[in-house]
Design a protein that fits this description.
CATH architecture: 3-Layer(aba) Sandwich
Strand order of the largest sheet: 1-2-3-4-5-6
Distance between the termini: 51 Å
Structural class: alpha+beta
Largest sheet: 6 strands, mixed
CATH superfamily: Gcn5-related N-acetyltransferase (GNAT)
Length: about 150
């Protein structure tokens, strides 16, 4: 699989774990937008997963400017299904690059022998945006915070 695809004026790339430190300052603000809406992860844990190679960083850029980021990792479910899990998506201009990013991520999944893509969304609006591409709701996570 090619680690970079040029689409119109955007480039979608896989960033090697050894290069995360070089691009981190451009990536972190996009991840912080997501972390402000969820308490399931921290910026530090995301950074460590990327550096250790436990997750892959995908970027959408226009020239030297990072427009958006995605993190993905492989997960084998207890049922045996091998999935490429899209952990985080943050950035701008989603409507312009989302279809191509999905194709890029699907190609990565096939390279790793995955049979499906999975991900979690912070807001219901994401599901509405992804339905035209074939995504459907599989689970709904609810939570109850325990007081002191």
């Amino acid at each position: 699989m090619n680690a970079e695809v040029k689409i119109d004026d955007f480039t979608i790339s896989v960033v090697p774990s050894t290069m995360i430190d070089l691009i981190w300052d451009k990536v972190k603000p996009h991840l912080e937008k997501v972390s402000d809406k969820s308490d399931d992860f921290t910026i530090e844990s995301t950074y460590n997963r990327l550096i250790n190679g436990d997750s892959m960083l995908l970027t959408v850029s226009r020239g030297a400017e990072v427009i958006a980021v995605n993190t993905v990792h492989i997960e084998v479910l207890s049922s045996g299904i091998k999935t490429l899990y899209i952990g985080l998506v943050g950035g701008d201009e989603l409507d312009i690059w989302s279809r191509q990013m999905l194709q890029f991520i699907e190609a990565i999944a096939k390279d790793y022998g995955c049979t499906e893509l999975r991900g979690m969304v912070v807001r219901k609006g994401w599901l509405k945006k992804m339905q035209p591409y074939g995504w459907s709701e599989a689970f709904t996570t609810v939570r109850y915070k325990i007081g002191e």
